[in-house]
Amino acid sequence: MSLQVPPPPAQPSPLAKRFRGYLPVVVDVETGGFDWNRHALLEIAVLPIELDDQGRFVPGETSSAHLEPAPGTEIDPKSLEVTGIRLDHPFRLAKPEKQALDHVFAPVRAAVRKHGCQRAILVGHNAHFDLNFLNAAVTRCGHKRNPFHPFSVFDTVTLAGIAYGQTVLARAVQAAGFEWDAEQAHSAVYDTEQTARLFCAIANAWPHPPQG
User: pLDDT tens, 141-184?
Assistant: First the structure.
């Protein structure tokens, strides 16, 4: 009987070397309120950053999930008015928290391996809001394979404030030269993809640090 030899670990790509072994992954969550210890996580989308043939940062593939409100969490009706989420929509196809996290974590782990990175680092607009809700969900369901750094983030509020003098996502995206569709805003997928475009535009314009 022959034993299968595991594949060698991926060599670090230029993407891994650019961010000290971290893979930037854009995340957006939609929630039932502002308190991550109390309110439900209702939507999540993730998007790993990739490199094109010219070595420029580009958005990768988006993965997303709708979540069933976890037992014991609350929902503020005012939050649903903002997001437009209908919890009883027949096509919402919401997953329990653990299954939803499995669904979005799998492509993140695959991208981390592909680039030879150590782990993912969350990119978000007001990033600690997204990270806190993500960490709360991980804790609630006892998830053991969270690929994200537990506290470090790249926040596009800060980056856009420096680059464009704008901190609101819609205005920052427009300042970067992209269109903004207010009708699609407050969807986890749409906000993730727009945040990714913003991050790539700023990162591509910034001089690369010297290697060494």
Answer: 999 999 999 999 999 999 999 999 999 999 999 999 999 999 99
Marked catalytic residue, from 103, 128, 143, 186: 186
Rounded to two decimals, what is the model's pTM? Answer: 0.92
d(CA 92, CA 43): 10
Indicate left, alpha or beta for 140 from its phi (over 0: left) and psi (-120 to 50: alpha): alpha
The pLDDT assigned to 111 comes to 97
Cα-based distances in Å from 175 to 57, 171, 179: 18, 6, 9
SS3 string, 119-152, reads EEEEEECCHHHHHHHHHHHHHHHCCCCCCEEEEE
29 pLDDT more than 60: yes
Query: Does the active-site annotation cover 143?
Result: no
Taking residue 135's Cβ as centre, other Cβ atoms within 10 Å add up to 18
Report how far residue 63's alpha carbon sits from residue 110's, in angstroms, rounded to the nearest whole number.
12
CA 200, 208, 164 angle in degrees (round to 5)? 45
Cβ count near 13 (within 10 Å): 15
pLDDT value for 207: 82
- DSSP assignment letter at 83: H
> DSSP E strands: which ranges in the chain?
22-31, 41-51, 57-59, 63-66, 119-124, 148-155
How far are the Cα atoms of 31, 32, 80, 167 from residue 170, in angstroms, in the given order? Answer: 19, 22, 20, 9
| 61 contacts: CB under 8 Å, gap ≥ 6 | 47, 48, 107
